[in-house]
Amino acid sequence: MIFGGGGALGIGYFIQDRRTNTDIAGVFAAIIVIVIIGMVVEYGIFRNIENKTFRKWGNDTMSNEVLKISNLVKKYDNSDRVILNNLDLTINDEDFLCILGPSGCGKIYINKMYCLVLKTMKEA
C-alpha cells in the first residue's frame, strides 16, 4: 500500500510532518496505523475475494505458492556502496510483508524485483 500526501489531512503528510519535527513516537504510531490498515485490507477484504474466486473456479483451497529470492546483490552504478548483499527472502502465501528502511537502502529495488517476477510469470 502506498499512502500519499493527500494535503494536510493525509497520513503521508502526517508522517512527514512528524519526521520533520523529530516526533519519533508520532512517526511510529502512523506506521503502525498503516500496518493495521494493510492487515485489515489484506485479511478482511482481499482474502475474502480470493476465497470466493477460487471456489467459483472449482478450487477449494488456495495454493501455498512461495516467492523465493536468493543471493540478491545490488549496488549503484556510480558507487562502490553495496545496497543489498546476498539477500535471501522467502515469501509464503500467508505472509504479511512490510519493508522499512532509510532512503537508498534498497526498498524500491526489492519491490521492482518482485514486480519483475510477477510480470515474467504472467507472460509465461
Q: Layout of SSEs?
A:
Blueprint: H1 11-20, H2 24-56, E1 67-75, E2 82-91, H3 107-123
Antiparallel strand pairs: 1-2
Helix pairs in contact: 1-2
Overview of the structural elements:
The chain has helices at residues 11-20, 24-56, 107-123, and strands at 67-75, 82-91. The mean pLDDT is 77. The longest helix has 33 residues, at 24-56. The protein has a two-stranded antiparallel ribbon. It is built from three helices and two strands, in the order ααββα. 48% of the residues lie in helices and 15% in strands. Helix 1 (11-20) runs antiparallel to helix 2 (24-56). By secondary structure, it is an alpha+beta fold.
List keywords for this structure.
124 residues, flat, two-stranded antiparallel ribbon, alpha+beta, single chain
Report the helical percentage: 40-55%
User: How is the biggest beta sheet arranged?
Assistant: 2 strands, antiparallel
Q: Which sequence of strands runs across the widest sheet?
A: 1-2
Rg, rounded, reads 18 Å
Total count of helical runs of at least 4 residues: 3
Coarse structural class: alpha+beta
Average pLDDT number: 77
User: How many strand units?
Assistant: 2
Shape field: flat
**Element-by-element helix/strand order:** HHEEH
Uncertain segments: none
Distance between the termini: 27 Å
Classify the beta-strand content into a percent band.
15-25%
Task: Quickly describe the structure.
This protein has helices at residues 11-20, 24-56, 107-123; strands at 67-75, 82-91. With 124 residues, the protein is α+β, with helices and mostly antiparallel strands.
